[in-house]
Amino acid sequence: MNKVFLFTLFIVLITIFTTGCWNYREIEKLGLVSGMAIDKGSSGKGYEMTAEVIDISASTREPRFNSIRMQSYGESIFECVRNMINISAKPPYWSHATTMIISKDVAKEGIIPILDWIVRDAEPRLTLYLLISKTPTAKEILSLQSLSTEIRSFEIENMVTSNKRLSQAPNILASELTNDISNKGISAIIPTVDMVYNEGKQTMALSGGAILNKDKLAGFIGLEDVKYYLFVRNKIEGGLLTIDITNSTTLDNVTLEIFKNKTKVTPIVSNGKLSMHIKIKTEAAIGESDTPINILREPNIQHIKHTAEEFLKNNILKLINSMQKDFGLDIFGFGSIVKKKDPKLWKEIDDNWGEIFKDLDVEIDVNVHIRGSGHLSKIIKMH
Asked: What one-character-per-residue DSSP string does 271-284 give?
């Protein structure tokens, strides 16, 4: 009986002292930050932080979610965070933040201080999405008209995650970006956002990728080039390929919808020289065609297949050559692949990888399988 009593008491005590959270705070007393923008300080020194804070306005029927913006200044990111307390009755709570927009000027000087705060502090998520703004300041993005929700940061997060269907924006979390910056064998790319007009109103849109040299902004690539970058990185999850199909009489467009893709990159050493072999296998269907022929008949389908393979191969090679000649930055992670598959070789070349990459030979094999064209095999005609 005593044993049963002691066991019961033990369970009760465990329940009492292990429930709850060590840093529990009542949510209505906090300012829930959905995202933030980082700009240079007005004097050219330090930082200006703009936080988007969720404003929950109660009504008789249901709560309405809006957002307000607060700004603070500091010599460091952490100082900006702490100074935000001085201007808000509700202390900012950063664990719900999903996106951070960084200005071009800040990115050119380096984003290590920003990543250091994210990784070191207990509140920010390591799953934050970081983006570079092409507008003069990052805070402008948070002030632009939102099309789908009043919470700008949540809309940007949805734009990044939903872009998998287009494969025109890199999808990289703060934790992954930290690893890439720390790795000699790869130069990171993060998504960019810019101002656009929609029905005469200013709003925001994803605009491609920002290339980093270590942690500093080195340049930009557009939406289409991001797609070819993702092909090499084996990160294609969808998207479209619009190609020109030439026959005896016309030049027409065929748009392929990508359903599956598998890319394998293999380092090859021959006669003491390193090269990379890229093998791409893509499964697609014909989504749209302007071609006035039966596109599924032989040899038409083979002609489309061959054209698509050459189109994809040439555009990937063009991007690789641009990275080698214009930037000298390995955004494809070829060095990381060598490090993983041949550690001994990597130890010999890692200090000179930047120069080796510039002259690296790359061979690409592309195999596009076209599995159908929906309900139609010919273009719709008007009589």
From this structure: TTEEEEEEEEEEEE
Backbone angles phi, psi at 37, to 5 degrees: -125, 140
- Exposure letters 133-150 (e unless 16+ CB within 10 A, then b): bbbebbbbbbbbebeeee
CA-closest candidate to residue 124, choices 149, 168, 93: 93
Average pLDDT value over all residues in the chain: 87
**For residue 377, is pLDDT > 50?**
no
The encoded tokens of residue 340 equal 């993983």
Q: 362 and 276 in contact (C-beta within 8 Å)?
A: yes
Query: Which DSSP category does 323 fall into?
Result: I
CA distances from 104 to 96, 107, 110, 133, 137 (A): 25, 5, 10, 6, 8
Structure tokens, 253: 């467009």
Domain segments of the chain as ranges: 24-221, 223-383
DSSP letter at 164 equals: G
Tokens of 23: 């840093």
Q: In terms of C-beta distances under 8 Å and separation of at least 24 residues, what long-range contacts does 178-183 make, across chains too? A: 178/115, 178/118, 178/119, 181/112, 181/115, 181/212, 181/214, 181/215, 183/335, 183/336
| CATH level 3 topology of 223-383 | GMP Synthetase; Chain A, domain 3 (3.30.300)
Which of 292, 296, 329, 316 has its CA nearest to residue 366?
316
Sole residue written with tokens 């009504």: 59
Residues 6 or more apart in contact with residue 306 via CB below 8 angstroms: none
- Total residues found in the chain within this entry: 383
Residue 292 carries which DSSP code? S
* Residue in 164, 153, 171, 32 with CA at minimum distance from that of residue 91: 32
d(CA 351, CA 343): 13
81-109 per-position pLDDT tens digit = 999 989 887 889 999 899 999 999 999 99
Note if the pTM is more than 0.90.
no
User: Cα(313)–Cα(243) distance, rounded to whole angstroms?
Assistant: 12
